[in-house]
Amino acid sequence: MKNNYRLIWHIFPSYLIITIVSLIAASWFMSGTIRDIFLERTESSLKTQCLLLEKQIADNLDPLNMAAIDAECNKTGGNAQTRITVVLSHGKVAGDSEKNPSVMDNHLDRPEIVSAFSKKTGRSIRYSSTLGKKMMYVAIPVLSAEGISAVIRASLPITAVDKEIRRIQVGIALGGLFIAVLATIVSYFISRRITRPIEEMRLSSEKFAKGELGHRLPQPGTSELDTLAKAMNKMASELEIKIGSINTQRNEYEAVLSSMIEGVIALDTNENILNINQAAADIFNCSPNLKGVSILEAVRNTELHSFLKDAIVNRKTKESDIKIFKNKEYIINIRSTLLYGSNKKPIGTLVVFNDVTTIRQLESMRRDFVGNVSHELKTPLTAIKGFVETLLNGAVENIDDTKRFLSIIEKHVNRLNLIIDDLLELSKIEQMDERSEINFIETRLKDVIENAVSLCREKANAKQIKIEPEYSEEISARIDVYLLEQAFINLLDNAIKYSNSDSTITINLERVENKIKINFKDRGHGIAKKHIDRLFERFYRVDKARSRDAGGTGLGLAIVKHIIRAHGGHITVDSTVGKGSVFEINLPV
Ligand code: ADP
């Protein structure tokens, strides 16, 4: 595992180790040097003492006077706290300042004595078992005419030297310790000075990561860190600008998406929702906060699921209509296209939903209308053709048949005429409405009703039907007299056609709040509830045979609806089978 120590714990111990190692090296080197200087000095002092004795010893060698030699040794050694020994050429000790020479063993094997007998200054440091101390021995040869006749050796315990060196070493160690503590404190503060700006940078980058991009790093005061801080500040400000523009773009995109009339759902390749707009949520009666939720869970519609499965699996652009049921049936057009990521690879599917219920209904109505017109025209034409052929095939010879067939042909021609007149009327109203050519004039509605009633009176009288207009007050409105009269005639005509003899038709005109209400109430056959919704469609008839017998074209109510709509009003029906119907016109004042 990686050790994630703080930077200070990487820098500070290295400083400490360097300081301590330097101190140890310095004290080791110094104590070595001091020791060498001490030993050299001791050696030279011992050699000087030997040289000072050389003359006296040489004088007592020929003739050999061991007692005098020993006395010289004792005299010098006693004064200088140095042990002086004189060794003769065969190794025997002639004098010694510390011991009795007669009890001392042969000294020819001592390294300093060996060196001195070879005409060099001998030097040796060793532990003396005789004195139980570490000693330095320096020996010089005493030269005579016969060569080297003796060796003078001076020796000094060097425990004092060692003691002195240890004292110095302790001093160095204490000084070193003091320096180490000082170096520790200083290096700790230096480390802190290096790491503090870095720590500040770390905290600042954490702030940047949290989105506080307005925060700025202080300048740490060292050129490298200054450059880094400047670079980080620049990065933050550029990020701030970029994120700002991304947010603006996202808000714009969200605004576009949420204000779209079309529903939009973006899905990933696992059919999870990436985005859904309000319109799509409204279409499927679900929440718009469904990001990450599977479409299978969010929207329960098998037609949609199989459409999406096909679009996602086969990665193709598709279009289809599906049905959904809310309070009524809606037809929704769906189009799917592949959704590409920044690397140009498909990342899902974009589905656009359009409510095409009205368009599809209009399309179906148009289809039905063409079919209906053809059918309505074809029926009388077929009859006319049949009778003409019968006449041509010889029936014309019989005058009674000819008269009868011609009157039937006339009836069908009249019917064709009526249908064509009504179709032309309907198209005229539509065109007038579209081109705003309707001639609105302030008119008393009572006059318009009276006119329509007088035009229908004859037909009503033929069936002993009474027409009773009721006016509570004088009401005027801006209307097209010709068109509104036409609408009233159509409604009266229907009321007469679909009522039995001896009944009454009531017309009621009144103002309710800011509306004008005109009711046409009959006590006729009535209309079953299931027909009410489609009653105002072109060629829609409740009972085809009855309508045809009564001379109806199936266009009367469609014309009424258009006229009322062109006046900014609407028409409703309330009817009970066997009891009669009420057609209520609502016009704005
Ligand atoms: P038509 O020329 O067949 O009368 P309309 O469009 O005027 O065509 O009427 C459509 C159908 O509505 C009629 O065929 C009839 O069945 C029904 N209808 C219209 N007005 C009445 C009414 N006052 N009473 C009963 N049925 C009516």
Percent strand: 15-25%
Shape verdict: rod-shaped
Named CATH topology of the largest domain: Heat Shock Protein 90
Sequence of strands across the biggest β-sheet: 2-1-5-4-3
Say how many strands there are: 17
User: Into which percent range does the helicity of residues fall?
Assistant: 40-55%
Largest sheet: 5 strands, antiparallel
Total helices: the number is 15
Distance between the termini: 88 Å
- The poorly predicted ranges are none
The number of domains: 4
- Using the 3D structure, state the CATH architecture of the largest domain: 2-Layer Sandwich
Can you tell me the CATH superfamily of the largest domain?
A: Histidine kinase-like ATPase, C-terminal domain
Bound molecules: adenosine-5'-diphosphate
Q: Structural class of the secondary structure composition?
A: alpha+beta
> Rg from C-alpha positions?
66 Å
Task: Fill in the keyword field for this structure.
589 residues; alpha+beta; Beta-Lactamase; Helix Hairpins; five-stranded antiparallel sheet; 15 helices; 21% strand; rod-shaped; binds adenosine-5'-diphosphate
Report on this model:
With 589 residues, the chain is of the alpha+beta class. Strand 6 (263-268) and strand 7 (273-276) form a beta hairpin. 53% of the residues lie in helices and 21% in strands. It folds into 4 domains: 49-162, Beta-Lactamase, CATH 3.30.450.20; 260-355, Beta-Lactamase, CATH 3.30.450; 372-422, Orthogonal Bundle (Helix Hairpins); 426-588, Histidine kinase-like ATPase, C-terminal domain (Heat Shock Protein 90, 2-Layer Sandwich). The chain is built from 15 helices and 17 strands. The structure holds adenosine-5'-diphosphate. The site of adenosine-5'-diphosphate has 21 residues, from helix 12 and helix 15.
